[in-house]
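your task:
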Amino acid sequence: MKNMTFRAAALTLGAWMGCAIGWAQGQTVLTVGPESVSASDFEHIFLKNNRDAAVTEESLDEYMELFINFKLKVLEAEARGMDTSATFKRELDGYRQQLARPYLTDSEVLDDLVQEAFDRKQTEVRARHILISCDENASPTDTANAYRRIKVLRDRIADGADFVSVARSKGGSDDPSAVENGGDLGWFTAFQMVYPFESAAYTTPVGELSPIIRTRYGYHILEVTGRREARGEIHAAHIMIRTPQGKDPGAVTQARRRIEEIHRMLEEGADWNEMAMKYSEDVSSASKGGELPWFGTGKMVEAFEDAAFGLEENGAISDPFETEYGWHIVKRLEARDLPTFEESKRELEKKISRDSRAERTRDSFLAKLKTEYTYTESEKELSQLVRAAARVDSVFYEGHPLPSTSRDNQVLVSFAGQTWKVGDFIAHLNTTKIRNPEAGAAAIIASNFTAWTESLLLDYEDSQLEAKHDDFRLLIEEYHDGILLFELTDQEVWSKAVRDSAGLEAFHAENADRFMWGPRMEIGVYTCANDDVLKTVRKALKKGRSSREEMAEANAKWLEENALALRMEFGTFESGENHWADSVFAAAVNGPTVLEFPAGDGATVVVNVISARGPEPKPLEACRGAAIAAYQDELEARWIAELRAKYPIEVNTLVLHSLAD
């Protein structure tokens, strides 16, 4: 019974604590002047800047003081109108555009595309293709004709005709290289072809014919001829002997003999770098020992890649081989496997954002927005607009705007409780450069209507990001406050301390005890190469000749014979600044004297202690950096005190401490 009572009490206490924490999240934890900060916002900022730290009442109190100082500076910057300047708005808008991008795409589709790209990167595909060219903005008639052509060619191959023969035949592939290579594209991997083509290559089984695919270049069919595990990347160097255009047999033989002789010399131990610099005819790499940038599949001609990737150890060199450029020998410098998913994720995301596959994330995101905001469009009004435009032949040519219609005030598009009318779209069309006026009214209006409505949706969603995403709102606030904080602190503290020479000098004079030399030794150090030089130095020091000039004058003869016979160094050093001064400190010297230390190889170091100096203030020039930093701290402390006196501050300690673990 007692256990049941205790259990019930514990559950009740746990429920109460959960409610208390939930209550605290919605409460104001700080008020600075007219601005309030919620407990949830403060907690988010605290945790972001104190990762993995224990959340105690003490740490919360300590951070709150720093946060108050931060908010006071931002409040003062706003009071001065710094957040209304054109420069500030332009800078913040630039940051906002960058930060908004991840929120204006379908992250789930992006994740799928990243995984797909990574998976494809593990494999390389070989294929040949036939292309029938067709511009993206081609007329319906031209598009249909291109499709019929590619279908006829595909049917011929499907019925048993040889792919290469069809590609090379009259009326075959529009790719001019097909005459020589029969459409063979060699080996490739993800991002090396346009996305629809890449997808067809990776989804078509080896030895089979793909469906007809459309890219921005036209219509394609492809036959996959091979698939293999990705090779990774290699770092190599090469020596090349060029063969002339036209490949005169005598010149080719001469080039082959030269490369074979170079290869023989390398095998007998000749230095690779010297041979490359001396003999290689690749001017871009010869001076670097033939070194090439890292490369993977599809970056070099196939014969070169095969030779390089065929080397199994670093330092190995290939036999001579020929490419269309000449004769080569390749040396493997390094090789590396493909990066892991985590290592490559960010780079894959960047590549996807620049690739046509990014349209999938955009299209999916727009579809979700249309559902969320109950998007509707009037097909009737759009059709009538097309008919009206078609009646005016020159309407889409520059300088000929689309005239107003009787239906300008009819609703064309609506979503999120807002409407856009026919007249709004006409105004947009009349300010848009029509790239292909010959395409016809229906095609032009359709493509521009799609672009216009997509822009409306994305602009609206962009305007809602702060309200929909707390993390985005806090991030923008962080950039907003950070820009203001930097500008105002620079004015009031950082640059002010550097510019205010009189203030800095006065601060230094008033705080001289903060900028002190420690105990120092003023010394002359003479490194004597042999006993003759040592004797001469001893005599000179006894006679009071200690300066560089006096020592050189006394020993001009042997200094001329050996410039390194005597090396001299003079200075005043604190402990830790000079090895020989430290040796004097260790000897507990407190006045002028001469000490000698063996230095190896018959050399001796003579240290002439000129004076042992106690602690004393540093002049400003000797401590300017430290003095400026301290003066900045002083200016900031005064400024914070003024701001705390200017703006009322209220901390809800109960709410603050409820955030502790």
The first helix runs from residue 2 to 25. The longest strand covers residues 218-229. Confidence is low (pLDDT under 50) at residues 1-21. The chain has five domains: 2-96, 123-229, 233-336, 373-465, 516-617.
